[in-house]
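hey so u asked for the seq, here:
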Amino acid sequence: MRVPLIAGNWKMNTTVSEAIALVNELRRGLDEIDNVDKVLCPPFVSLATVRELIRGSSIKLGAQNIYFEEKGAYTGEISPLMLADLCEFVIIGHSERRQHFNETGEIVNKKVKAALRAGLKPILCIGERLEENEAGRTEEVITEQLRSSLAGIEHLSGLVIAYEPVWAIGTGRAATGKQANKTIGFIRRTISQKYGNQIAQDLHILYGGSVTADNAAEFMRQFEIDGALVGGASLKANEFLSIVKQTSEIRTHLSEES
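ran it, structure tokens below
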């Protein structure tokens, strides 16, 4: 079984001092949990500070965005070279970036390529809107997002995919475990058709969208789901710790059964 990955996307929350306090609450508890890869994704301004706080621990670090150029006159942007010395992962193509900052599939593709060139591990977000889901177009939308996001990319080593149905992000309306598992299974089959079965089976595909300590177990029991990209719940230490702990316990149990 693939080792599950739980990533906390703090979004545009926490000052540097608040980030310090949150990491101090999380570090010991996260370090005591085995069989789960744990990633924290704070805002850019806290990356260097959080990196020092988690040094020597089992916790990994990720950024929330990236620009696709290495350097230049792009005021306010953060390049892959700037991130490469700071963190291991980077979230790309989140629905909030697509919605509020008009990020197209072409832009997402450039960012994924830039991240991979820099040795970063992209967490590529894909997912359908509510009207697309209700119209039965989920697989069509997912297929197009994968096509555009991965165009020209021959090797997926280090890549993580996060399935985040847009209608479930920040709404409190999570997909059911069976719904998420079905779509993630489709994503894996789609990857298999282009890159081969072994690549698809090795690929980590997460679920994201209103994941909480109350519903995490439902997702982690699903065979195709390899973890979660957690939003609001990652800002609450006890909640995030509970999600990670439940994931470890469930996957250890399932591994023993198999």
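The CA atoms of residues 80 and 215 lie 34 Å apart. The domain at 5-257 is CATH 3.20.20.70 (TIM Barrel).
lmk if thats what u needed
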